[in-house]
Specification:
C8orf32 fold, 6-stranded antiparallel barrel, 51% helix, alpha+beta, 2 domains, 307 residues, globular, 16% strand
Length: 307
């Protein structure tokens, strides 16, 4: 609430001094209105900061004020819709149990092989309605129930946060320890403060590795960086963001060796295991259409999708 107090003081000062801020044809009094206007106009933000109209500190306060208002809105929305949440959670848990039961047909040797198989099944729509899954960038205004992010995958679209939660729910049911790791490939100081990506950290033979189910990549992690190698051989790098302050023990573990032979064996296994399962069963929607339709319908009502 520190920023809320700062904003109140600044608002009081603007009103007391009767100062009016002019930006183009907009006449604004006080930071509350200013924050709303700034957040709604990216060109204004860029031109204002670059030309020195107002400081980066003031801009940051306005942005944080916006985020605070959004969090308050989400909490109220969450409390208001708890009955709908419990209905959907029960259906989603039932679906995950059915998925895990079917995955028992995959005889994997290690967690890396399991992840590559799940990655293939996710990408090819095995877990989604109508066997159709698409990476879709969505705003998170109504995404107030993180433990229901997996319902986006059932419905057929999502981004890294939905993929990671969905796969984590499956792994938890399979008693495979995992944790969400927030990271960033942003530039400059922003890279060390704000995450724009999430993936999963796992263990194999008491050694750690990370798997990115959005970019089909396996990687290593240290206290600062994540280095990923995609199935296509492309390498990418992210800054580690310890968002939940729970990574210390995990980061202290030794890393898996990701040599070409290990990666090749995992990829080949995942593709074959996933393909064989789809050839045998089709997809989850062939097996559970009614349940998946109900989950999708309730998820869309509870958390409307906005691109």
């Amino acid at each position: 609430m520190y920023y809320r107090e700062v904003i109140n003081r600044l608002n009081d000062k603007f009103k007391k001094d009767k100062k009016i801020l002019y930006f183009g044809s907009m006449e604004l009094i006080g930071l509350s209105n200013l924050a709303v206007y700034i957040l709604g106009n990216n060109n204004f933000i860029n031109s204002s900061i670059s030309s020195g109209i107002f400081s980066s500190t003031l801009a940051s306060i306005c942005v944080l004020y916006h985020f605070e208002k959004e969090e308050v809105y989400k909490e109220k929305y969450k409390e208001k819709n708890m009955d709908k949440y419990y209905e959907l959670k029960e259906l989603y848990d039932e679906y995950i149990d059915k998925v895990v039961n079917i995955l028992s047909d995959i005889k994997y040797e290690n967690n890396m092989q399991l992840c590559t198989a799940l990655d293939y099944l996710l990408d090819t729509g095995f877990f989604s309605r109508n066997e159709s899954y698409k990476y879709t960038k969505l705003t998170d205004k109504y995404e107030v129930y993180e433990d229901l992010f997996g319902t986006f995958i059932v419905e057929g679209n999502g981004v890294c946060r939905h993929n990671s939660v969905f796969i984590s729910d499956i792994l938890n049911k399979l008693n495979v320890k995992n944790l969400k790791i927030y990271c960033s490939n942003l530039k400059g100081r922003m890279a060390l403060k704000y995450s724009n990506h999430v993936l999963l950290g796992l263990m194999q033979d008491d050694k750690k590795f990370v798997y990115d189910f959005t970019n089909n990549s396996i990687g290593q992690i240290n206290r600062e960086f994540i280095t990923l190698i995609g199935i296509n051989g492309k390498e990418s790098k992210y800054h580690v963001i310890d968002k939940e302050n729970n990574l210390e023990d995990y980061l202290s573990k030794e890393s898996c060796e990701l040599d070409s032979e290990t990666l090749a064996r995992s990829v080949v296994f995942g593709l074959k295991a996933g393909y064989d399962l789809k050839q045998k069963l089709g997809c989850m929607y062939d097996l559970e259409p009614k349940l998946m339709d109900e989950i999708s319908e309730k998820s869309l009502k509870l958390m409307p999708r906005k691109k």
